[in-house]
Amino acid sequence: MKRAKEQAMRDQKRFNSTSEGQRAMCTRAGRLATLHLINETIRKVDPSEAYDRALIDRLTGNDAIDSLRDLLLADYNRIVAKK
Predict the structure, then answer these.
(1) H or E element in which residue 40 lies
(2) Distance, CA of 20 to CA of 51 (rounded, Å)
(3) How far apart are CA 4 and CA 23, in angstroms?
(4) What tens digit of pLDDT does each residue of 10-68 get?
(5) How many CB atoms within 10 Å of residue 55?
(6) Which of 78, 82, 75 has the alpha carbon at shortest distance from 39?
(7) What residues have CB less than 8 Å from 16, skipping those under 6 apart?
(8) Number of compact structural domains in the chain
(9) CB-based contacts of 65, cutoff 8 Å, min separation 6
(10) What is the DSSP letter of 18?
(11) Please, what's the largest Cα pairwise distance for the chain?
């Protein structure tokens, strides 16, 4: 089990060093930055509705990022409509 995990880490490092891997990491960073921006906007309107920054940073996979983005936007629209 340990060997498989070590091999997976080596494969990921190898992929990250390719131009495709670099693009993937940049895309992920941009998407997470967008989530942080939306979250900070929510925090300014109603701090009790904002998510923990660590939760956003721990997201893995595009589906999780997309889901949280959709949730943040829905929360923002709901909060603004209340005000």
Answers:
(1) helix 19-45
(2) 31
(3) 26
(4) 888 888 789 888 888 899 999 999 999 999 999 999 999 999 999 999 998 889 999 99
(5) 11
(6) 75
(7) 22, 24, 25
(8) 1
(9) 28, 31, 32, 35, 59
(10) S
(11) 55
The answer to whether 31 and 48 are in contact (CB under 8 A) is no
pTM: 0.79
Domain with 14 in it: 2-82
The answer to whether 76 touches 38, Cβ cutoff 8 Å, is: yes
**Separation of alpha carbons 65 and 59, rounded Å:** 6
Q: Which residues contact 15 (CB under 8 A, 6 or more apart)?
A: 21, 24
